[in-house]
Design goal:
- The protein is α+β, with helices and mostly antiparallel strands.
- It has 2 domains: about 110 residues; about 150 residues, 2-Layer Sandwich (60s Ribosomal Protein L30, Chain: A).
- About 60% of the residues lie in helices and about 10% in strands.
- The protein contains 7 helices and 5 strands; from the N terminus they run ααββαβααβαβα.
- A 5-stranded mixed sheet has the order 1-2-5-3-4.
- Helix 2 runs antiparallel to helix 3.
Length: about 270
């Protein structure tokens, strides 16, 4: 009887121990699973925070890059202003030096292209242009002079004004004297693009082309009357087709060129067949 009780008690204790052992293992497993789930959630949260921080870092880096580019552009603009200031300062100093030289009478005569005309004729035309500054211009490289039509004619007219005849007489004196007498003279008339409206002018000059040629003929007549052989003089007219600029005033002009005779007589006469 006692032996049975001891065996039963032993079995009971073993069962309690086994129950306790397995019961503790289940509780530990749940605790581990809970902690693992919690750690995984915290890891996901950390990953989200890390992604946000990386995005903010990238945004800040982009802002820094943009500010850096703006700063570099600003620095380049500042350098550009510095270069412009330096150039303007240099130009100011050069201008001040020129003004000082001019005040001291040290201004050198600007270089002008060589004239195709003999020295004596070239110098005579320079003197004539200086004496009639504002009325007559000497184009030295081309060997010709230009006179504003407003200085020679009334509007729409081809009659040389009385006060302009003296100027043309002086020009004729240069053209008729040696060594200019070895050159031919070509008188070229030009007008602006204003239409001729006066009936009396239209009756005599149907177009600006006619007016330009008629004015060239009038200047030619004045030169011949003042002593230039008629055989040396030719006339041309271009109307408004060869302006020198957008302003109408300078386009109204008569030009007188001294040219080598071979240059003018470039075409031989056309002879009819026999």
């Amino acid at each position: 009887m006692r032996s049975f009780r001891r065996d039963s008690f032993g079995n009971l204790m073993v069962g309690v121990a086994v129950f306790g052992l397995f019961g503790c293992d289940a509780k530990t497993q749940k605790d581990v699973e809970f902690r693992a789930a919690k750690a995984e959630s915290e890891a996901r949260t950390c990953q989200g925070d890390l992604a946000q921080e990386r995005a903010r870092t990238a945004d800040l880096r982009n802002q820094i890059d943009a500010r850096t580019r703006e700063w570099e552009a600003g620095r380049a603009e500042v350098q550009s202003y510095k270069d412009r200031i330096a150039a303007l300062t240099q130009a100011r100093d050069q201008l001040a030096a020129l003004i000082e030289k001019r005040g001291a009478g040290e201004m050198a005569r600007p270089a002008i292209g060589a004239s195709p005309l003999p020295t004596a004729t070239d110098e005579a035309l320079q003197t004539l242009a200086g004496r009639h500054a504002g009325r007559l211009w000497y184009d030295r490289p081309r060997g010709g002079v230009s006179v504003g039509s407003d200085r020679l004619f009334d509007p729409g007219s081809d009659v040389v004004q009385a006060e302009a005849l003296a100027l043309l007489a002086e020009l004729a004196g240069v053209c008729a004297a040696a060594p200019a007498d070895e050159f031919d003279i070509v008188v070229v008339g030009h007008t602006d693009d204003s239409a001729i409206t006066k009936p009396e002018s239209l009756a005599k000059h149907p177009s600006n082309w006619h007016l330009s040629v008629h004015r060239a003929i009038a200047v030619k007549d004045a030169l011949v009357k003042a002593g230039v052989p008629a055989a040396r003089v030719g006339v041309m007219g271009y109307g408004e087709l060869r302006p020198v600029g957008k302003e109408r005033g300078p386009n109204r002009r008569v030009e007188v060129f001294l040219a080598p005779r071979a240059a003018v007589q470039s075409f031989e006469a056309i002879r009819p067949p026999r």
